[in-house]
Amino acid sequence: MPVLECRDLRKSFGDLVAVAGVGFEIAPGETYGLLGPNGAGKTTTISMIAGLLERDGGEVVVQGARLTSTSVKAKSAIGYVPQDLAIYPDLSGRENLRFFARLYGIAGDELARRVDEVLDIVGLADRAGDLSKEYSGGMKRRLNIGAGLLHRPKLLILDEPTVGVDPQSRNAILESVDQLSTEGMAVLYTTHYMEEAERLCDRVGIIDLGELKAEGTRRELVSLVGQRDQVVLALGGNVAGAATACRSLPSVHDASTKDEQLELVVDEARRALPAILESVSEAGASVRSVEVTEPNLEAVFLHLTGKALRD
Fold this sequence. Notes:
Blueprint: E1 4-13, E2 16-26, E3 31-35, H1 42-49, E4 57-62, E5 65-66, H2 72-76, E6 78-81, H3 93-103, H4 108-121, H5 137-149, E7 155-159, H6 167-182, E8 186-191, H7 194-200, E9 203-208, E10 211-216, H8 218-224, E11 229-237, H9 239-247, E12 252-258, E13 261-266, H10 269-282, E14 285-293, H11 297-305
């Protein structure tokens, strides 16, 4: 059963249509990326999914329970980490987590254990006693994520959690999110950083102007725009013969030579590479190096929306 099912979500603010019929599902252990520029409708969508914003239409089901703005059961399965920091600067990291744990109804020995576990997960155990106002921007973001993990949610919603943080902290946040999904938590991750979606997400939904333009794995989305992988082989020996041999392979759509390089346009290069190397060898050429370039989500986004992601 999917952890999250949302169907035909709609929301308008006056004459502005913010979300127009968005729907998708997330399975246990899956990270689903909602990818779009600022103003695309990402935050409005997840605010409705979290029950923080009334929907004009559509349905949200979490762990089999229909969610409304007042439903407790469905909301209790959600951990929500907003863009804005929701921590108290004059409390230490540990005190912040203890406060939020009590709000979740965690008490006694379980409270202390869970706070320690979350401090380890977000990499703040060694700074737990410091006031959070003394934390770097990245550390504050990690504490913000920790607050959403205390009650062991089935669905973790992260709204652009790496905005404004340094590269080291950003990497630490991404590693933490990756680990959570491998432990079975469903993660809904919104971002306008293409490389984050490429790195973290099992599936991606591309949203623009309040509409879900397409969704799928990276490979499925790339296939929408008809792009293929490129393979460049640096060769010695019979380069022309290698090109001729590769053109006979069903996965190779084009083969050209330049100096001692063989440039190929290929379907699913990682699967096709063994056959390519075998054909090159049989043609009397030796391989000095191999470079594979796979099309990325940037090309898909540009194709579907007509603009770059951060426009």
